[in-house]
Design goal:
Elements: E1 3-7, H1 14-37, E2 41-44, H2 60-68, E3 76-80, H3 90-95, E4 100-105, H4 112-126, E5 131-135, H5 141-153, E6 163-165, H6 173-189, E7 191-196, H7 210-214, E8 218-223, H8 225-232, H9 237-249, E9 253-254, H10 266-286, E10 290-293, H11 307-313, H12 344-360, E11 366-379, E12 382-390, E13 408-409, E14 431-441, E15 444-454, H13 459-468, E16 475-480, H14 485-491, E17 496-502, H15 505-521, E18 525-529
Helix pairs in contact: 6-12, 6-15, 8-10, 9-10, 10-11, 12-15
Length: 533
């Protein structure tokens, strides 16, 4: 490879692209220097736009224009220092015939890792061959060795020996029987997945083809966010106030300020309470067992963030919502599993997990998180790589230290959330977890899963990790058993990861095997990551 073309997919929102431009430009210079060090040269396939004040591909239309100018067999690097919308570059990458390398910066502040993992999952679903690399400063041996390999051979090979197929694992008979029995009953009963506008932020990997869900007994109800907003308008101020008072009585606090543009206000939170009530009522009307709200497109221009509503929905202990006419409490004593950013893979996983954990007698609250960042920590009992898992919404208070009383509502960052809205901020409680990811590859639903432990870190370290990422969001300090940092990055096919607690290590192991058996019975191809041998 002599001449390599570089592209950078960005956000649809101009404010995000403008704020992240400097970090992207700096990262690109480091990548270019590494390529030149190995004897190659880089041509940026699209220029900085002085009117837009950024150099990102910011639409699918523009992405198609850019790829028309790239020779069809030329090597291409997709460099990402930020969150990006995959569909901006997916059409060009699907038809491109040259070697493709996705590259991200190892940074919490600039979420290129999250953006790249979404792109990788989408390319995997689309059947596009690609290689992937990541680095903190693009001078380390791991990155340069991988880059050299790609420039010479057109591909990078990573160690994924931590992942073993279901048939090669040692699965306890009892756990397998529990999982198979549950899955058969799940499929026979059937379930409806409510989709409030499909396809969020270009996340092609987060859409499951209907025919794949059919075999598992799950069927989509395609709903509209405009209907959700219309339903919010029918919720009275008094009903919203009842939900708000319930939350306050549980001990949750909110950090308010006077400026709607930059601060969280009570008015924003009350609108979120109306969204929560509206979502439950629509789910009941259509018989949904799980729902996902897109929010980031469309609804973001009408209402505050959906995140507070999402966290409440995922908690079994939540404010009661009554039927408009009969007064009956809807989904009494149950969570209504919600999947953030309408990620259907997380929605299917969350629904199966919720039901199976109920059957096992374990707390069923579960959520997705972004695989945001991480670093090694060595002090006391914690010695190893600790991931930072974060997501703006969907995290139930039951996952946080002291529950509602340990939760704080802070305003979503204006860069992404113009109309504000509260998060459910807190620190995930220590304990044993089962982690997983459902994804689509080779036209089949697949599932990777493993064991992990949420660890307690000193408050100073937690605050630093928050400051390195997004301090308004809930944080989980996770150690993934038997999986190194680079193995996780090489194998994981999404920006999201699903997590659920178990009562102890033995319970987590039993539940993991039962879940794996259930997923396999439902037609998924299953891999154990770091465990199972």
């Amino acid at each position: 490879m002599k001449t390599i073309y570089l592209v950078a997919s960005g956000d649809l929102r101009a404010s995000a692209n403008q704020k992240c431009e400097a970090a992207q430009a700096a990262m690109e210079q480091q990548v270019i220097a590494a390529v030149e060090k190995l004897g190659g040269s880089v041509t940026r396939a699209h220029a900085y736009d002085p009117v837009k004040k950024h150099g990102f591909i910011d639409s699918q239309k523009y992405g198609m224009e850019v790829f028309r100018s790239i020779p069809p067999k030329a090597p291409v690097i997709v460099a990402e220092a930020v969150w990006q919308y995959t569909h901006h570059v997916l059409p060009g990458l699907i038809t491109h015939k040259g070697p493709i390398l996705t590259v991200a910066n190892w940074s919490g502040q600039w979420p290129g890792l999250v953006g790249m993992l979404n792109l990788n999952g989408s390319l995997t679903k689309a059947g596009v061959e690609y290689s992937t690399l990541w680095s903190e400063d693009f001078t380390d041996r791991f990155f340069l060795k991988g880059l050299s390999q790609w420039m010479k051979k057109g591909r990078v090979k990573h160690d994924t020996s931590h992942a073993i197929p279901y048939k090669e694992a040692r699965i306890p008979d009892q756990a397998e029987k529990i999982g198979v029995s549950f899955a058969k009953a799940f499929r026979e009963k059937k379930a409806i997945m409510g989709i409030f506008d499909e396809g969020c932020m270009g996340m092609y990997n987060a859409i499951i083809p209907d025919e794949l869900l059919f075999t598992a007994g799950v069927f989509k109800e395609r709903l509209s966010q405009s209907s959700l907003y219309a339903k919010m308008l029918t919720v009275s101020d008094a009903e919203a106030r009842e939900v708000y008072d319930w939350i306050l009585a549980k001990g949750m606090k909110f950090t308010y300020g006077p400026d709607e543009a930059t601060d969280l206000t009570e008015a924003q939170v009350l609108l979120q309470c109306k969204m929560y009530i509206a979502a439950v009522r629509i789910a009941d009307e259509f018989g949904c067992s799980t729902i996902g709200i897109q929010y980031q497109q469309g609804l973001k221009d009408l209402a505050p963030a959906s995140d507070l509503a999402e966290g409440l929905l995922n908690n079994t202990d939540r404010p009661p919502v009554r039927h408009e006419k009969t007064g009956t409490v809807l989904y009494a004593g149950e969570a209504l599993p919600h999947f953030n950013e309408v990620d259907e893979c997380a929605g299917f996983d969350g629904l199966v997990t919720y039901g199976l954990w109920r059957e096992l007698g374990y707390p069923p609250e579960n959520t997705l998180h972004d695989v945001r960042w991480g670093r090694t920590y060595k002090d006391g009992d914690v010695r190893g790589f600790v991931w930072v898992l974060e997501i703006s919404g969907a995290v139930p208070p039951a996952h946080l230290v002291d529950g509602f009383a340990g939760s704080v509502g802070e305003r979503q960052p204006p860069m992404y959330f113009r109309l504000g809205g509260s998060t459910v901020k807190g620190i995930s409680k220590p304990g044993h977890i089962v982690w997983s990811r459902v994804y689509v590859e080779d036209d089949r639903m697949q599932c990777d899963l493993g064991l992990g432990e949420v660890v307690s870190l000193p408050l100073e370290e937690t605050r630093d990790r928050w400051n390195q990422t997004t301090p308004q969001w809930p944080i989980m300090h996770a150690v993934l058993k038997g999986v190194s940092r680079d193995q996780m990055m090489a194998k994981h096919k999404a920006n999201h990861i699903q997590v659920v607690y178990a009562p102890d290590a033995a319970g987590a192991r039993k539940a993991m095997f039962a879940k794996a058996a259930a997923m396999r019975e439902l037609g998924l191809k299953v891999h154990f990551c770091g465990v199972g041998k």
